[in-house]
Design a protein that fits this description.
Elements lengths: L1 H5 L27 H8 L3 H15 L4 E11 L28 H13 L4 E6 L6 H15 L4 E5 L5 H9 L4 E3 L9 H4 L5 H13 L3 E3 L2 E3 L5 H12 L7 E6 L16 H14 L4 E4 L8 H9 L4 E3 L12 H11 L2 E3 L14
Parallel strand pairs: 1-2, 1-9, 1-10, 2-3, 3-4, 4-5, 6-7, 7-8, 8-9
The structure holds iron/sulfur cluster (SF4).
The site of iron/sulfur cluster has 8 residues, from loops.
Length: about 350
């Protein structure tokens, strides 16, 4: 099998092998092709994991995992038709509609998440795009959450350039906006917006100076070429997203993807490993779908380079492992929380 590993040279051979992690970001590759990414997927499993783990150790402590907690601040009734999403108004699911949450309740939830060990608080609203009035309320939430000492992330749908700048001014650290899948498969999953709409908002977010959280979903019936295409699209953005959530589809009754066949677990681990290789300095989040994964599968994902999870019993509307189960998981694997907050940041809202 050694021959197969010779077909791909170490993509980061040019980097300093002495362990120096301070190199300029321009050392990173932004010219991946789908074929090259597909060739990584095709490596023998052990070779793939070795490459991913080697790069992971070059840039991160392999035993540290970033912990985020997610809260739905406005639930259901979304006009978009994302085929995986129980919050879409197009599908008959058990998700109830709720308006924008009260600011005090959001800040209280952030304090509980911080006390439980999370370092980032992510707030999601089921909008196609926020109105400027909605955005102002979210900005007040961001200021309140930031005062607890946590990093902040929001996902609100499409943003204009001015809206992205307003969020930055409010002190937002990360904006989540997933590309979900490959450009080629995108129209099979969402028809109410285009892949290019996604790229435009990502550009607005990046130009505002916000950190980008952007990944996708695996197991929606896409091909391996689509998975490679999705990772190629992420790794060829002008800057690699600072945070890359890789979700396993949660098949929610009532959504068009409810009866999609289950993805092979090892293929999911391969997706994590390839994400780590093509975006070696990004935090790769083992995101939705963990309730369907065994401890062993999650351990393989961490070995493949995942170094972030959502912590807390609930994601936006779907279940997440119980907090006691994650504490036990961390103990069994010898993992530690990355960057737990210690003191509130200064209040000048100078940005992350
Ligand atoms: S994923 Fe987001 S944009 Fe798509 S339907 Fe759900 S809430 Fe709306």
């Amino acid at each position: 099998m050694a021959k197969s590993t010779e077909t791909i040279t170490d993509p980061y051979d040019a980097l300093d092998k002495s362990g120096d992690k301070s190199g300029d970001k321009d050392d990173l590759r932004h010219d991946w092709t789908t074929d090259e990414v597909g060739a990584l997927f095709a490596l023998p499993f052990n070779d793939l994991l070795f490459r991913a783990q080697t790069l992971h150790r070059r840039y991160f402590d392999p035993n540290e995992v970033q912990i985020s907690t997610l809260l739905s601040i406005k639930t259901g009734g979304c006009p978009e038709d994302c085929a995986y999403c129980p919050q879409s108004a197009h599908y008959d699911t058990e998700v109830d509609r709720d308006g924008l949450m009260n600011i005090d309740d959001v800040v209280a939830a952030a304090q509980r998440a911080r006390d439980a060990g999370a370092s980032r608080f992510c707030m999601g609203a089921a909008w196609r795009r926020p109105t400027d009035k909605d955005l102002e309320q979210v900005c007040t939430m961001i200021e309140g959450v930031r005062a607890t000492g946590m990093e902040t992330c929001v996902t609100l749908g499409m943003l204009t350039d001015a809206q992205a700048r307003r969020l930055k001014e409010a002190g937002l650290d990360y904006y989540n906006h997933n590309i979900d899948t490959s450009e080629e498969y995108y129209g099979d999953i969402i028809t109410t917006r285009t892949f290019d709409d996604r790229i435009e908002t990502l550009s607005n977010v990046r130009h505002a100076g916000l950190n980008v959280c952007c990944g996708g979903i695996v197991g929606m019936g896409e091909s391996r070429t689509d998975r490679a295409g999705m990772l190629m699209a992420l790794a060829t953005l002008p800057d690699h997203p600072q945070s890359v959530p890789i979700n396993q589809l949660v098949r929610v009754p009532g959504t068009p993807l409810a009866k999609t066949g289950e993805i092979d677990g090892l293929e999911f681990v391969r997706t994590i490993a390839v994400a780590r290789i093509v975006m070696p300095r990004s935090v790769v989040r083992l995101s939705a779908g963990r309730t369907d994964m065994s401890t062993e599968m999650q351990a393989l994902c961490f070995a493949a380079g995942a170094n972030s999870i959502f912590y807390g019993d609930q994601l936006l509307t779907t279940d997440n492992p119980a907090t006691h189960a994650d504490k036990e998981l961390f103990e069994r694997l010898g993992l530690r929380a990355m960057g737990a907050p210690s003191a509130p940041p200064d209040q000048d809202h100078g940005g992350a």
